[in-house]
């Protein structure tokens, strides 16, 4: 797994490439922590090249979403491949995030593929 972080306007775009599993979670967590230096955090996860995510990776995304919400920020997902999308749908985690078809759509604020229907507590 590789992770890249890019600032685009007021957003931090975090691109995840490859498989997210317990071996890569510490690195992903470090990149997310760096993104939280911006206040309020406006995170967009570009998942266009993420081929798989396990429960430890899902936990990191959920924690990022919850922390962003507590800080008055946002956390969105975009460009989900079928396998990670299915995992997120089966676990119900997809309902916690706004999901966009592309990074550009997320930066522009629409159109959405699905809107978050759950809030973090």
Automatic annotation (TrEMBL):
<comment type="similarity">
    <text>Belongs to the anti-sigma-factor antagonist family.</text>
</comment>
<dbReference type="InterPro" id="IPR036513">
    <property type="entry name" value="STAS_dom_sf"/>
</dbReference>
<feature type="domain" description="STAS">
    <location>
        <begin position="1"/>
        <end position="110"/>
    </location>
</feature>
<dbReference type="Pfam" id="PF01740">
    <property type="entry name" value="STAS"/>
</dbReference>
<protein>
    <recommendedName>
        <fullName>Anti-sigma factor antagonist</fullName>
    </recommendedName>
</protein>
<dbReference type="GO" id="GO:0043856">
    <property type="term" value="F:anti-sigma factor antagonist activity"/>
</dbReference>
<dbReference type="InterPro" id="IPR002645">
    <property type="entry name" value="STAS_dom"/>
</dbReference>
<dbReference type="InterPro" id="IPR003658">
    <property type="entry name" value="Anti-sigma_ant"/>
</dbReference>
């Amino acid at each position: 797994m590789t992770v890249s972080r890019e600032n685009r306007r007021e957003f931090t775009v975090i691109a995840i490439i490859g498989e997210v599993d317990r071996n890569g979670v510490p690195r992903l967590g470090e990149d997310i922590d760096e993104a939280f230096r911006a206040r309020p955090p406006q995170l967009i996860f570009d998942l266009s090249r993420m081929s798989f995510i396990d429960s430890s990776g899902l936990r990191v995304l959920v924690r990022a979403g919850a922390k962003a919400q507590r800080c008055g920020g946002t956390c969105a997902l975009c460009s989900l491949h079928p396998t990670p999308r299915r995992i997120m749908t089966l676990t119900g985690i997809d309902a916690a995030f706004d999901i966009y078809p592309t990074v550009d759509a997320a930066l522009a604020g629409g159109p959405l593929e699905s809107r978050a229907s759950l809030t973090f507590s």
